[in-house]
Design a protein that fits this description.
The protein is an alpha/beta fold. Helices cover 39% and strands 22% of the residues. Bound molecules: adenosine-5'-diphosphate (ADP) and the ligand O=C(O)[C@@H](O)C(=O)COP(=O)(O)O. This is 3-oxo-tetronate kinase.
């Protein structure tokens, strides 16, 4: 194969790792670049992922970063562009899935069409008649209705995307998918829309969609969660063997949690070691609070056991902090504090293995560590691969965990698969 079969623009770093880990597990060499690329990308990989932090920022900025990433991916020879968004379609009322999809479509030409689905059956995400289900609940009845930054209250994705996009949004219903690839191609054509969302209930449906894409006449922008990317990876033959992960020296272990997700709340509750609480209201009210937390983290890390620093809280408590501080300031305080703790822990306390829970949180931590690329390794759980980052010559193992992913005991068991 010449050049990467897939160039991915991911709207957060945990989503990038989710997709990269899933594709790598299928035997493809996969590289992850952090932030909008300035130089050339690694054109040798089968799949190149650019991890942005564009899910909740201003839509114009999200578009600018995403278009820059897409251009770099096309320059690297990517055969197809893939817009990775969350399997729960996390977005604000202003976007950013729609504005970014509109801009990427424009990059591909006047008659381009976007075809996508957030369905990721392995994670319990399915789409039926345009409605997104999280396990056995509609999106709007799942815990995502209370997400701290992107509360999802409408399960009808055609309606959600239409409100974010200047283009028409159409649906390929499950009935067409069940008939096979050529029925999907016909349904895409007759949808007469620039953006087409496709129903999928299982991996077999995703394989049908992946097969159909080859027969669509127009240039195609792909979109979705890790599920459709995995189906594309199953069709592409691995061309380049993945290099083994470099060894990370032994060191201390730290878990940082800024996720507001239900599963992360369970993981925090199940953690058996020392837990240090990070409270945005305390940080806002006391200029010494962060230094005190850094000192407490150092002290707790002095033993050999893993330590957890957590801002994760019940939705009511998060809402109280947001009401008092504003949503952005509350999030910024938590993200900045956890990022500073990460840097301090690596530079001063000998931490070499770090689990970070939450996409926005992971983006802030990865940026503060100054990592530009991630080498993707083994999965600690579906959608959650270990990665290795280089911080000024020091290798650090990172598990950047999507909020709702991983078993309840992940913060205890994940170390077993760490590099
Ligand atoms: N106790 C809290 N109060 C207010 N905001 C919080 C609190 N804990 C976390 N946050 C913010 O909520 C957001 C959670 O998003 P993210 O890290 O993507 O995880 P997830 O998507 O799993 O909830 C982050 O911006 C984080 O800083
Ligand atoms: O597609 C998914 O569900 C994940 O890859 C993802 O993007 C999750 O985002 P966070 O929960 O914000 O980490």
């Amino acid at each position: 194969m010449s050049g990467p079969f897939l160039g991915v623009i991911a709207d957060d770093v945990t989503g990038a790792c989710d997709l990269a880990g899933t594709v790598a597990e299928l035997g493809h060499s996969t590289s992850v670049h952090l932030g909008a690329p300035h130089g050339d990308l690694d054109a040798d990989a089968d799949c190149i992922v650019v991890a942005l932090k564009t899910r909740t920022i201003d839509p114009d900025d999200a578009v600018a970063h995403s278009v820059a990433a897409a251009r770099a991916l096309l320059d690297a020879g990517a055969a197809r562009l893939y817009q990775k968004y969350c399997s729960t379609f996390d977005s604000t009322p202003r976007g950013n899935i729609g504005p970014v999809a509109d801009a990427l479509l424009a990059l591909l030409g006047r008659d381009a069409v976007s075809i996508g689905t957030p369905a990721t059956p392995q994670a319990g995400r399915t789409q039926y008649l345009g409605h997104l289900f999280v396990h056995d609940r509609l999106l709007s009845e799942s815990s995502l209705r209370d997400h701290p930054l992107t509360p999802m209250r409408d399960p009808d994705l055609v309606r959600v995307l239409s409100a974010q996009s200047a283009h028409r949004v159409g649906l390929v219903p499950h009935a067409a998918v069940r008939w096979g690839p050529s029925a999907v191609v016909d349904a895409v054509r007759s949808a007469s829309a620039e953006h087409v969302l496709v129903d999928a209930l299982d991996d077999g449906d995703l394989d049908v969609i992946a097969a159909a894409i080859d027969d669509v006449d127009s240039p195609v922008l792909l979109g979705g969660g890790a599920g459709l990317a995995a189906a594309l990876a199953r069709r592409a033959l691995p061309a380049t063997a993945a290099a083994p992960l470099p060894a990370v020296e032994p060191g201390r272990r730290l878990v940082l949690s800024g996720s507001g997700s239900e599963r992360t709340r369970e993981q925090v509750a199940a953690f058996a070691g020392t837990v240090l609480r990070l409270d945005p209201l305390a940080l806002a009210g006391d200029p010494d609070a962060l230094d005190a937390l850094l000192a407490a983290t150092d002290e707790a890390l002095a033993g050999d056991a893993a330590v957890l620093v957590s801002a994760t809280d019940e939705p009511d408590a998060v809402r109280r902090a947001q009401t008092e501080l504003g949503v952005e300031r509350a999030a910024g305080l938590v993200e900045d504090a956890l990022a500073r703790i990460a840097v301090h822990a690596v530079d001063r306390s000998g931490v070499r293995r770090l689990i970070v829970a939450g996409g926005e949180t992971s983006g802030a931590v990865a940026a503060a560590l100054g990592a530009t690329t991630l080498r993707i390794g083994r999965l600690a759980a579906p959608g959650v691969p270990w990665a290795v980052a280089d911080r000024e010559g020091v290798l650090v193992a990172l598990l950047l965990k999507s909020g709702n992913f991983g078993g309840r005991d992940l913060f205890t068991t994940a170390w077993e698969s760490a590099p």
